[in-house]
Every structure is written in C-alpha cells, then in structure tokens.
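Aim 2 progress update. The chain analyzed this quarter is reproduced below.
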Amino acid sequence: MSPEALIDIFREALAVIVTIVSMIIVPGLVVGLVVAVFQAATSINEQTLSFLPRLLTTLLALMFLGHLLVQTMMEFFFEMVDMIPMVVG
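Predicted structure tokens:
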C-alpha cells in the first residue's frame, strides 16, 4: 500500500468525521449564540438558561438527521471494506 493511498483514506475519514460532527454540533452552537445574545440584551446572567435549548436542539438534530448520519457512516464503512484487497495485496 502506497503512502498516497493511506493519506487518501485518512483524508476521507476526516471528511466523514467533520461532516457528522458538524451536523450535530452546528445547530446547538447557533441556538447557544441566539440565547447568549438574548441574555446579553436582557442582562440575564443565568448559566443554566442556555443548557436546555441547546440540549433540545442537539436531540432534535440527532432525531431528524440520525438516518443521514448512519447512512454516511455505513457508506464509508462499505467503501473501506471494498478497499481491503487493495490495501492488503
């Protein structure tokens, strides 16, 4: 196996990881930013106020995007399984 092939596999794995993590984290970050702006505008200094909306947003993102996330991981896994003969041989 050439170093270029290993780098391509590593690059694709990182792309899959970044895609999956960003689908889960970005909605929570946006909601956290909106709540932080609201807290700054109203001078509410309650730390727990932003927790529940971010938690619910993350759970909703997992609920609605779970199928796409699992499909992405399965496609990557099947592609890696198909590459086993090239890597070994």
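The chain has a mean pLDDT of 91. The radius of gyration is 19 Å. These observations will guide the mutagenesis experiments scheduled for the next reporting period.
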